[in-house]
Amino acid sequence: MSALTFDKSELGNLEYSLQREMLATDRKGGYMSTTIVCCNTRKYHGLMVAPIDQTDEAYVLLSSLDETIIQHDQSFNLALHRFKGVYEPRGHKYITDFEYTPTPTITYRVGGVILRKELLWIHKRTQLMIRYTLVDAHSDTTLRLRPFFAFRNKHSLSKANVEANGRSYPIAGGVKCKLYEGYPWLYLQTNKADAEFVAAPDWYYGFEYPEEIKRGYDGYEDLLTTGYFEMPIKKGESVIFSAATDEMATGETISQIYEASIARRTHKIDFLSCLHHSARQFVVRRPGGRTEMIAGYPWYGTVGRDTLIS
């Protein structure tokens, strides 16, 4: 049971669902934030927004991750993006349910395929994990995951350029990418041995962020993809995708980190548990051991006056 749930009629109504946003933090100053249908409407949205130095400034590294279900040579893109007033693809039409217990969980239905997605920020490390479970399927199914990178300050916007490094470098279980010098490597991996990464660097132009346009700012961004993961997935099987700024320690596995982290999460079963969870998101432990309180996501850092007002 969850106190934070949305049904298909609410999720399919973009005037409603695009006004509902979710936030998850790593308790180090990094966060994941987007709408409940995973369509970014602000330049501050992203799946991995994290500090890369000792300042309060955070940077959007991984903007989004597009999922595609493939059956019988037909592709069904589950993502949702806005390009100059047009939504494409329109993956929200496949969403049947959203609940936040103990972590944001979205369920998609495409014909006879039911896919569950669980998003998990790992506390005290800059690492995002997404677990995909094929709840039901009646035919051979392939899952494709395409990451989109920004690698820019959260207050800025990415524009297509020739300086960006579109290469991906093989590592155990995946690849690592770094668009520009001065940024950390981003390690992209899965826990599935037969997952294949297909290198296909390309710019996608004109992502539109309507909330920025409303505020009078530039609201258009170009994002770079370096390729995509593709893997078979069977009914009842779970696949975990990981994005991190640090390599995992020797002996660690993606599955172990995910299970240990999810076991420590509390369920949001009522208003009080939701409030308690939300309040803890603003407590940050910086390198060196000092503890601070963020005044507010996504704009503010550790500003005492604004923290007390909040």
What does this structure look like?
This protein has one domain (5-267): Beta-galactosidase, Chain A, domain 5. With 310 residues, it is mostly beta strands. It has helices at residues 8-12, 14-17, 210-214, 254-263, 271-280, 304-309, and strands at residues 5-7, 21-25, 31-35, 46-51, 58-71, 74-77, 80-83, 86-90, 95-100, 104-110, 113-121, 127-136, 141-153, 169-171, 174-177, 186-190, 196-208, 220-233, 238-244, 283-285, 291-293. The strands form 4 sheets. The chain has a 9-stranded antiparallel sheet. The model has no long low-confidence stretch (mean pLDDT 91).
Element-level helix/strand string: EHHEEEEEEEEEEEEEEEEHEEHHEEH
- Give the strand tally: 21
Number of domains: 1
**Which structural class fits the helix and strand makeup?**
mainly beta
Radius of gyration: 19 Å
Mean pLDDT: 91
Separation of the first and last Cα atoms = 29 Å
Kindly estimate the percentage of residues that lie in beta strands according to DSSP.
over 45%
Query: What is the helix tally?
Result: 6
The level 1 CATH classification is Mainly Beta
Give the overall shape: globular
| CATH architect. name | Distorted Sandwich
Poorly predicted runs are none
CATH topology: Beta-galactosidase, Chain A, domain 5
Strand order of the largest sheet: 1-9-10-11-12-19-16-15-14
Report the helical percentage: 10-25%
Biggest sheet features: 9 strands, antiparallel
Structure described in brief:
With 310 residues, this protein is mainly beta. The chain is 13% helix and 46% strand.
Layout of SSEs?
Elements: E1 5-7, H1 8-12, H2 14-17, E2 21-25, E3 31-35, E4 46-51, E5 58-71, E6 74-77, E7 80-83, E8 86-90, E9 95-100, E10 104-110, E11 113-121, E12 127-136, E13 141-153, E14 169-171, E15 174-177, E16 186-190, E17 196-208, H3 210-214, E18 220-233, E19 238-244, H4 254-263, H5 271-280, E20 283-285, E21 291-293, H6 304-309
Antiparallel strand pairs: 1-9, 2-3, 3-4, 4-5, 5-6, 5-13, 7-8, 9-10, 10-11, 11-12, 12-19, 13-18, 14-15, 15-16, 16-19, 17-18, 20-21
